[in-house]
């Protein structure tokens, strides 16, 4: 079955689902901050789905007291299923595989793996939100004696096990599986994972459960204090709506870890920077401006003229996108040392070694 046929089949189900509108995909709007319970909120961002262009509007509010930013109203589990569908799997699987397995990401994976070198060699490492297991595959070259397992809600973890990228796959939610994995791991990683979760605090507690005494938790997340978020607005890729539910300031995450009994042993605000802000903004803006693609969440396929216009506009923009990307990579060593750095890393130790 080719893509056109697959889309035609999926369109029937998508249109049936969308007939009831998208309001039911959202929980009731919060009037208080989910982090500190303050009622002093402001709207930080209002946008649409710039990733897949599925229908819906999304709002990120920010707490004026603790600066925590969060999707409000938040997507329900049904809504998350709808907006994740055909992004990491299905129609989007091939593109996602290409993006996450790119050379630039491999360098980032290696840097993340090396961040634990000063704290010894983990015996067993759980990568939470592992996707298709590309981080463990790279990290094995840094920690060859370590056994890497992966956890994800998607079938990607099981595929990663089949491909030999991880030793054991756990499919489901960490908060559900943690009791069965209690004390099994010396290291747990959460790379660009917490921002996707409904309750980040519960995830940190669950990580504590699966860690052995003296084990380390390593976290990388988008930095909501990045200057680019204000400059680029809705085009700042790390907003990543509707998938990112929480944007956690470093100070908040650090205090929460310490309250749970972790000791923060390393913080890095520069190296985790992903040099893609300008390129990502250009890609999002271009995709938003192009005529619609043949996707099943649109009620009808594009006309022949729309298809030709989309292809012509896309290919004519490639040299510009390539130029922006090249310039951004050249500037990355400088930008990552400024407030333009768009991500941070925290390494925390839980308890003391047994």
TrEMBL record:
Presence of the UniProt keyword Transferase in the record: yes
Q: Does the keyword Methyltransferase belong to this entry?
A: yes
Q: Which InterPro entries match?
A: SAM-dependent_MTases_sf
- Transmembrane segments in this chain: where? none
Per the UniProt entry, what is one GO biological process?
methylation
Q: Which UniProt keywords apply?
A: Methyltransferase, Transferase
EC number annotated for this UniProt entry:
2.1.1.-
Q: Which GO terms describe its molecular function?
A: methyltransferase activity
Q: Supply the name of the protein.
A: Class I SAM-dependent methyltransferase
Q: Which organism is it from?
A: Streptomyces hesseae
